[in-house]
């Protein structure tokens, strides 16, 4: 059991240690407990010290080239795909560390199961982002097709309406001229006979 003097000394010492004060120090300190970087509560993606930024950029560039994002939302979804793929590969690398390569048996079954779960989680995240991207693009395409077909439909309707009006005008003109001729003939007929 601690004596009163030790308790007071501990309390006094704890007041002296306030942690890092600079932004760089706080950032460094915030990553002290990171073991594998597969789950970050803040969801901030980062590379571990032994990972190659060039390899990550190659994955990201490949996905950008394949999907060619046009909007900010599409760029975010492609970035999520790159992050998820990288984290999936990281989980696979850590699974390899759990194996005894000489015997082929698992050395750390608990960690292997954890890394396998992270691999599955990040694989699902990749496909979720991919599906969201495809869904977004399909909706855009449907809107464009819908707009064009509505425009085309309106044009066809207008043409039919004009054709109908022309028919009505043509049909009405001969009737009026025939009526006019009959009326003229009827009115001129009795006048001529009377004269």
Describe the protein.
The protein has 195 residues and is mainly alpha-helical. The chain has 5 helices and no strands. It has helices at residues 4-16, 23-30, 53-67, 72-97, 109-194. Residues 191-195 have low confidence and may be disordered.
The biggest sheet amounts to: none
Could you name the ranges where pLDDT drops below 50 across 5 or more consecutive residues? 191-195
Q: What is the percent of helical residues? A: over 70%
What structural class should be given to the helix and strand makeup? mainly alpha
Question: How would the global form be characterised?
Answer: elongated
Please trace the helix and strand order, writing H or E for each element: HHHHH
Mean pLDDT: 78
Q: What's the total count of β strands?
A: 0
Tell me the number of helical segments per DSSP (H or I, 4 or more residues long): 5
Strand residues, percent: under 5%
Distance between the termini: 147 Å
- The value of Rg in angstroms is 40 Å
The gist of it:
The protein is an all-alpha fold.
How are the elements arranged and paired?
Elements: H1 4-16, H2 23-30, H3 53-67, H4 72-97, H5 109-194
Descriptors for this entry?
elongated; disordered C terminus; mainly alpha; 5 helices; 195 residues
């Amino acid at each position: 059991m601690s004596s009163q003097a030790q308790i007071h000394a501990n309390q006094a010492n704890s007041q002296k240690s306030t942690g890092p004060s600079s932004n760089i120090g706080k950032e460094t300190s915030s990553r002290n407990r990171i073991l594998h970087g597969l789950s970050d509560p803040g969801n901030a993606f980062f590379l571990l010290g032994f990972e190659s930024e060039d390899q990550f950029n190659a994955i990201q560039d490949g996905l950008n080239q394949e999907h060619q994002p046009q909007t900010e939302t599409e760029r975010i979804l492609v970035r999520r795909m790159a992050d998820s793929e990288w984290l999936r590969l990281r989980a696979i690398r850590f699974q390899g560390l759990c194996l005894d390569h000489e015997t082929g048996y698992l050395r750390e079954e608990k960690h292997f199961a954890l890394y396998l779960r992270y691999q599955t989680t990040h694989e699902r995240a990749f496909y979720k982002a991919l599906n969201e991207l495809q869904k977004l693009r399909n909706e855009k395409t449907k809107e464009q097709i819908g707009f064009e077909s509505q425009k085309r439909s309106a044009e066809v309707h207008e043409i039919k309406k004009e054709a109908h009006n022309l028919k009505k005008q043509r049909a009405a003109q001969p009737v009026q001229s025939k009526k006019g001729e009959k009326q003229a003939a009827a009115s001129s007929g009795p006048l001529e006979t009377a004269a």
